[in-house]
Amino acid sequence: MYPDEVLDVSANEDVLNVIVPPQDNVRVGRPLGDYVDHQKYLWLVTPGRVLIALEYGLSGLDLQRQRLSHTNLSGGEDAHAGGELWFYDNHSVMVNGGSSRYEPRSVEELQALADSFVSARYRVCCAEWNSDLDRPERVFRGKEPWL
Question: Would you kindly state where each structural domain of the chain is located, as residue ranges?
Answer without folding.
Answer: 3-136
